[in-house]
Amino acid sequence: MAKGRKGPKGKKITLKIAKNCIKVTFDGRRRLDLSKMGITTFPKCILKLNEVEELDLSRNMIKKIPESIAKFQNLRWLDLHSNLIEKLPDSIGQLGTLHYLNLCNNKLTSNSLPLELRDLKNLRTLNLGLNHIDNLPTTLGALKELHEVGVFDNLLTSIPTSIAKLPKLKKLNAKRNPFPKDDEDVAFIDSIKRLETLYLVEEKDLCGPCLKKCQEARDKLNKIKGMAPAQARKPNFTNLVSPNSTAKESQEEWRLLQRLLELPS
After folding, report:
1. By mean pLDDT, which of 39-43, 59-63, 103-107, 188-192 is the weakest?
2. Cα 66 to Cα 73: distance, rounded to the nearest angstrom
3. 11-23, pLDDT tens digit by residue?
4. What does the pLDDT look like over 89-131, one tens digit per residue?
């Protein structure tokens, strides 16, 4: 490479362009959608639009998120997936209204996750999949409102108990991590498998490579199911108008299976 040569310049985002990218979601929130714009540097002009509730900078080539991200004090939804982000600013912990944070498919490591993430007390969904994280900070256990966590395709060998036992956690996707396979760790692995069969993000929120990985993972579900101990077959009460408790449980299993099968092949 020639001396002084820099990487791709990227598209310049002006305030006018940014204003034209503001959309209103179905539930009335203002979303600034700058995804897939070829952006390489966080556009400072959007700080003048810090009243938006949702910000989408996904599928760009951004390497650094500035400390000034904290100016988005109304932000509930932040999507930064599929960029080149190597470190998060400490000020991200000041986004107290944030419910959804997607950092999937970046270049994050354990050292680039600030302790201030623990201050996102209202966070419901956190996606850290497809990064280079080998250790999750136990302080994430302070996020008591978390419902969904994605840490798939990282370098993890364990999940901190403080995270696995979050009181409201419903979905934990920890697929394709180098978890131990010793006999003494069978119970640990099995507990992860039971949780990881549930997906964290909707199909529309995934980029092409992420979606492909999820589709491949879906194809392996039968193998995982085959590793589980055989259980007695439950009866199907298909003709009941008002199903009893056993039929309801069977229907819930059927609905989950149908959702997984509906993923595009």
Report:
1. 188-192
2. 15
3. 899 999 999 999 9
4. 999 999 999 999 999 999 999 999 999 999 999 999 999 999 9
- The CATH fold of domain 27-173: 3.80.10
Domain positions in the chain are 27-173
Query: What mean pLDDT do residues 43-52 have?
Result: 97
What string of H, E and C letters represents the secondary structure of the chain? Answer: CCCCCCCCCCCCCCHHHHHHCEEECCCCCEEEECCCCCCCCCCHHHHHHCCCCEEECCCCCCCECCHHHHHCCCCCEEECCCCCCCECCHHHHHCCCCCEEECCCCCCEHHHCCHHHHHCCCCCEEECCCCECCCCCHHHHHCCCCCEEECCCCCCCCCCHHHHCCCCCCEEECCCCCCCCCHHHHHHHHHHHHHHCCCCCCHHHCCHHHHHHHHHHHHCHHHHHHHCCCCCCCCCCCCCCCCCHHHHHHHHHHHHHHHHHCCCC
Q: Which residue type, as a one-letter code, is found at position 210?
A: C
Tokens of 108: 């994050």
pTM score of the predicted model: 0.69
